[in-house]
Amino acid sequence: MDLRRLLEKMMDTGASDLHLKTGTRPILRVDGVLGPTDDPPLNSKDLDAICDQVLTPKQKEQYLREREIDFAFGVPGLARFRANFFYQRGTAAMAVRHVPLGVPAIEDLNLPPIVEQLSSRARGLILVTGTVGSGKSTTLASMIDCINRSEARNVITVEDPIEFLHRDEKSIINQREVGLDTGTYLSALKHILRQDPDVILLGEIRDQETMSIALMAADTGHLVLSTLHTIDAPQTVNRILSFYPPHQHAEIRFLLASTLQAVISQRLIQRAEGKGRVPAVEVMLNTAAIGDYLMSPEKTLMIKSAIQEGAQQYGMQTFDQSLMSLFTQGLITYDAAMQNASNPSELDLRMRGISSSSDTTWSAFEGQTKEEEEEEGAGKTLSQEPPDVPKGITKY
C-alpha cells in the first residue's frame, strides 16, 4: 500500500483529513465535507502495511499494546501530518490530518487584529477554544510565530504530538513531544517552571491537574497559551469550573478573574465561493466588568452581552458580530451565517437593517457606521420599508 500516493492526493485536493479503514475506500475531508476517493476499498493487509511504513518499532509496540496511538510524521518534499491509529471491530483504522510546513501569519488567517495584540501580552492565560477541526492549533501556532518574529522570549511547548515546527528567530523555542521528549504530559508540566520559560504553550488542557498548573504558571508571571474543546466564553468558564469540586469554585473564579487574559473561540465557515473555509471568531477580553462577572456565579451569563458591548472600546466581538462582518465582506453566504449563528433571529434582523438607532455595538461589523447609515437614509420616512423586510416590520 503506497501511503505517499494517498497523501499526495490529499494535498492535491486540499483535504484537511484522510480516513482509512478496512473494507472502505479512502475518504477525504475537503472544506469540512467527507467524500470517498476513486481508490479501491482497503483490506487489513493494506492497513498493516501503512502501519509498518510510518510507525517506529517502539510506536508499533505501543499501538499493538494499547490498540491506539497519537503521533506526527513528516514526508520529505510533501508536508507534515498528525495521525491517530486505532482499532474498530477488530481491525486497524486511521485518521491523518495535514499540518502545513510553514506557520501561517495571523493576518493570513482572517483573525481579528486583537489576536496579534494578545500575543504580545507579558503574562496571563489565553485560551483558544472550539470543536475538533476548528483551527485551534493553527491559531496558537500563529501566535507563537508572532512572538518569535517580534520578541526575545523563551518559549516552551508541550504537545502530544508536535504539529507545527518553529525555528528560532528572536525567541528560543523548545518543543517537547509526549512520548519522545518527556514521559507523560503531566510530568513535563510539573518541571516546566524550572526551565526558565517566558511563554508556555500547552497543546490541550485535559484535566484538573493540567488546569491547575496553567493557572499557577499564569499567576506567577508567565504567558500561558492553551486550548479547550468548548464553543464560547461562558461555556469555557463552566468547563474550567467542572474540573474542580464545588468547594473550590470560589478560589478558581478568583484565579480566573486575576489571570485570564482572553478566550478566543472559533468556528470554521464555508466560504461563499464554495472553496475553502474562513473562521468566525468570538473574542472575550478580561475587562473590569468581565472580571466581576467571572467572580460571581450569578453574573457569568452576562459575559455574552459584555462581549457585544465591548466591541468598539476593547476590540471584543461575539460570534454573531463576526458572522455579520464576514457576510458584509462577501466571504460567507446568508445561509452559512444563519446555520452558525448563536442567535439566528437577531442576526437575521441585523442583516435586514432592522435595529435600534441607539445601538452602536454592531457598527464596526455592518460595513458602515451609524452616521453613514443616517446620511444614506436622509429624507426617508420611517414608514418607507426596505423591500426585503417582511410586511408589518418597521425600522425604529
From TrEMBL:
SUPFAM superfamilies assigned: P-loop containing nucleoside triphosphate hydrolases
Domain Bacterial type II secretion system protein E: 193-207
Family matches, as CDD domains: PilT
One MF annotation (Gene Ontology) recorded for this entry: ATP binding
Coiled coil: none
Highest taxon above the source species: Bacteria
A Pfam short name: T2SSE
Region (Disordered): 358-396
Family affiliation: Belongs to the GSP E family.
Protein name: Type IV pilus twitching motility protein PilT
